[in-house]
Model the fold of this input.
Amino acid sequence: MRKGDFHLSQIHNLNQLPAEFEEQFGGNASMLLLSAAAGSEKIYVHIDKIPPGQKSTKYHSHSKQEEFFLILAGEGTLRLDGEQYPVKKGDFFAKPAGKNIAHQFINTGDAILEILDVGTKEQGDIAHYPDEDVYFLRDQKLVFRGEDAEKGWSSDPNE
Done:
């Protein structure tokens, strides 16, 4: 079955998700790409599975993307906008679009941390990684360091 043939106008089950809709990252962490399997175009829906001692992603923010997270299992720490908060099964929060709120989950528990991760797919979204001062232009797959920013530049052709 081709990836494009699986999703449209069907009811799906997590236990029968084809292997191409599961991505491995960061060692033993994985992500179930539910929205891709179902054919969603404007939102993404993932289940992230983070082993003990690992992180969900690098600490980052988005310029345009709105996100919602629900802890399905396990416990850990949410690093959010410069603060750290304990999280456990049943906890949820939203990160509104355009607020540049940096976030990251860290599994500080003894079991897999499962997170329902839902967000919008936004053209022109820029991810900022403040720990490294790196900007990622997602659509173009371009990476820049903040220290490389040109000071005093103008688009005015008559200057």
